[in-house]
Amino acid sequence: MANRNFSMCDFTVHEKIGSGVFGEVFKVKLADTQEEYALKKINLQKFNAEKEQIYPRREEKIHKSLLHERIVAFKCSFIDQNYLCLVLELCRGGNLSQYIQRNDPCVKIKSFFKFTKQICDGLEYIHSKDILHRDLKPQNIFLTERKTIKIGDLGVARLLEDPKCRSILTVGIGTPYYMSPELMNGQEYNKQTDVWSMGCTLYEMATREHAFEASTIADLKAKVSSGMIPTKLDQSEYPSEIKQLISQMIQTDQNKRPSVQKIRESICQCEQQQTQNISSGYYSTRDTYDDSSGLG
Ligand SMILES: Nc1ncnc2c1ncn2[C@@H]1O[C@H](COP(=O)(O)OP(=O)(O)O)[C@@H](O)[C@H]1O
Ligand SMILES: [Mg+2]
């Protein structure tokens, strides 16, 4: 497939499965083989200045260079009228934000462990290529039919070509609930900026609420820069080690946040402890721990 030039004629378009700032995402079928994919159509007209045209092209380039089980696979791309079309692996389980909303009062701890370890794997791979995601959030983390994680939407990812890179995101971000204080304040940032966003994502799995929310950007900036850990986390039924880990991930000083490797270690340790608790009868019903009943 990689050597063939594709165009819109090769696909039949089915239902819309998502939309974002610059376009829409459809389920499509490759007419030849009947294989299903996701087609992300990016409206190039929405990027007016010539300088901004690099954004969709960068998404395409970065996506092409990443090949990993935990990253949405890139199949091909082409231009159709004013749209850049990216043909991607189809994730049939929707996105993590939708999953969180379906799971009241929070994502079951067993799924939390699985998802977190898989996000660590994907993020570690992206970082190993000297790429920062910069927009990690539940809406950009997709689920397969078998409820495994795929990190997607590399729309504002960028190469960490300069450790002092200071670029402020001007396009591609809606309300920046998951944006680190250093990014918001235009300061130097590094891989730990993705750890902040991942921390906000884990917080949401634990509480079903945004870690930081405000009605204006200025208020949001003040909140994320305050160093205060939002209180809803205390009320979560997750183990205290996990709550502590999440708090460490969303601390203002990026150098104090745990590395992705450390996050994985802490998660594995806590999971082991929880498994022991289950076998010793600590959980009254298995339901508190597990969602393998098929719900969610
Ligand atoms: N490969 C995919 N498989 C399934 N759903 C997808 C896929 N890509 C995107 N989506 C859905 O479309 C939404 C928007 O896609 P995304 O790539 O995040 O675009 P944007 O850059 O506009 O935010 C996602 O939150 C998700 O629900
Ligand atoms: Mg998105």
The CATH homologous superfamily of the largest domain is named: Transferase(Phosphotransferase) domain 1
Strand content: 15-25%
Taking the sheet with the most strands, its summary is: 5 strands, antiparallel
Tell how many strands the DSSP assignment holds. Answer: 9
Assign the CATH topology of the largest domain: Transferase(Phosphotransferase), domain 1
List cofactors, ions and other ligands. Answer: adenosine-5'-diphosphate, magnesium ion
Distance between the termini: 34 Å
* Structural class by SSE content: alpha+beta
Explained architecture:
The protein has 9 helices and 9 strands. It is of the alpha+beta class. The protein has 2 domains: 8-88, Phosphorylase Kinase, domain 1; 96-288, Transferase(Phosphotransferase), domain 1, CATH 1.10.510.10. A hairpin with a 3-residue loop joins strand 1 and strand 2. It is globular. The two termini are 34 Å apart. The structure holds adenosine-5'-diphosphate and magnesium ion. Residues 17-18, 20-22, 25, 38, 40, 72, 88-91, 94-95, 139-140, 142, 152-153, 155 line the site of adenosine-5'-diphosphate.
